């Protein structure tokens, strides 16, 4: 079961952090009734998608470095959606240089679920 949140609530980052930690599942962000983003607590994301984020065997010498941005990115829904669309991968949001949340668009979330079906 997914928890939903209106995009207007993203400006309150403390509320978003609290809701994601309490939910322990993806939080679906809606704008005008349509799902636009998926936000998760880092621990929940790592537990659910750890195998999907590994590189294929051919990339032994290249380390995967996830995209990281400040949590203040959430305050502008347009900027957040644009960053997620441009990245086409999960973005780790940091508060005081500590990973707190992971945000992605719905397409990336669906792709990760498909790639990591046995994980959850």
For the report, how would you describe the main beta sheet? 6 strands, mixed
Cα Rg:
14 Å
- Beta-strand residue percentage: 25-35%
Low-confidence stretches: none
What spatial order of strands do you see in the largest sheet?
1-2-3-6-5-4
Overall pLDDT score? 85
Compute the number of strand runs.
6
Q: Give helix and strand order, one letter per element, not per position.
A: EHEEHEHEEH
What class would the helix/strand composition place it in? Answer: alpha/beta
Overall morphology? globular
- Through-space gap between termini: 13 Å
Give the fraction of residues assigned to helices: 25-40%
User: How many distinct helices?
Assistant: 4
Walk me through the structure.
The radius of gyration is 14 Å and the shape is globular. It has a six-stranded mixed sheet with strand order 1-2-3-6-5-4. The protein has 120 residues and is an alpha/beta fold. The protein is built from four helices and six strands; from the N terminus they run βαββαβαββα.
Brief synopsis:
With 120 residues, the chain is α/β, with parallel strands linked by helices. The chain has helices spanning 13-23, 42-49, 77-87, 106-115; strands spanning 3-6, 27-31, 34-41, 67-70, 91-95, 98-105. Strand 4, helix 3 and strand 5 form a beta-alpha-beta unit.
Secondary-structure topology with pairs:
Blueprint: E1 3-6, H1 13-23, E2 27-31, E3 34-41, H2 42-49, E4 67-70, H3 77-87, E5 91-95, E6 98-105, H4 106-115
Parallel strand pairs: 1-2, 4-5
Antiparallel strand pairs: 2-3, 3-6, 5-6
């Amino acid at each position: 079961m997914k928890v939903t949140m209106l995009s207007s609530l993203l400006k309150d980052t403390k509320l978003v952090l609290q809701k994601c930690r309490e939910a322990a599942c993806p939080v679906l962000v809606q704008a005008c009734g349509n799902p636009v983003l998926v936000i998760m607590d880092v621990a929940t994301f790592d537990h659910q998608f750890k195998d999907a984020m590994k590189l294929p065997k051919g990339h032994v010498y290249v380390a995967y470095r996830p995209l990281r941005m400040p949590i203040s990115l959430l305050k502008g829904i347009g900027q957040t959606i644009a960053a997620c669309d441009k990245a086409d991968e999960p973005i780790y949001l940091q508060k005081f240089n500590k990973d707190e949340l992971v945000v992605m668009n719905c397409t990336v979330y669906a792709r990760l679920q498909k790639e990591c079906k046995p994980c959850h």
